[in-house]
Model the fold of this input.
Amino acid sequence: MRVWMIEKSRCTAALWLMLLGITLGGIWGRMPESRPVMSYVTAGSVVVIDAGHGGPDAGAIGVKGTAEKDISLALSEKLARALTQQGCIVICTRSGDEDLVKEDFSGNLLERKRADLQARADIANRNRAALFISVHLNADPSPRWSGAQTFYEAGSPAAELVGKAIQQQLQATLKNTRREALAAEEYFLMSATEMPAVFVEAGFLSNPKEEALLQDEAYQQQLAAAVARGITDGLKAAAGEEKRMLQPDQTQAEDRAIVRSARGGTRQQRIRQILAAAGITAGQELRHTGGVVLKTKRVHHTVGEQ
Done:
């Protein structure tokens, strides 16, 4: 198994050099407007890019013989470069035509495939990635279907934000897909990884026109750049949502007002006032830890020591 990655020590130096270049470029006015700029959200974020299939597993085969494993690798390499320019620490699960199964593996093809997928998930988990993205291509018995589409891990708000942001960028950039990002539950890698996970199906190899596009270097670059922008947008949105969730809301403010209003009287009277205000009925458990810790949907304060 070979894993291509940017080592953290080298990445740190690269980040400083990139920041210096951005600063000097701004001073001298020589930075091209189209050059990717490092994002404060993605800088230092570990992103694992998984090029689907590889080795004995060719994946889908196009009408002109294009193998999914080859296009997914080419797209993954371009995506890795784009994300690196945005300050990400990028780890690719494969860098050549190979799977991730050990050479001494003995088992049937199904067992080999499961071992390969588990090895990819292990890479992401071991490196504590912020995001896992797997790049694939679609195929269908009918040549009529086309269009890139993103799938995100069901039940993961962060994956949903990233998946939808990627799809929006694909729609805006490629202008050849109306497909929407969808939640998915059946992907093994989504359940095996411990971080938000998304899958990008970059197009249909069963569609002759799209197969030709997917072989084109310029189109690959355009597609990879769109996915990279979507990842940045999605991670920004996820970071903003997390920050919002950590801020005190109206309910928390009301809870503090309840506690403040119960400061008069004896300790037991204060407890009863808070219980009544919070709607706690008799028989609900109170755990004593010096004061009284109230745990309900609305109140989580220690009283009795004010």
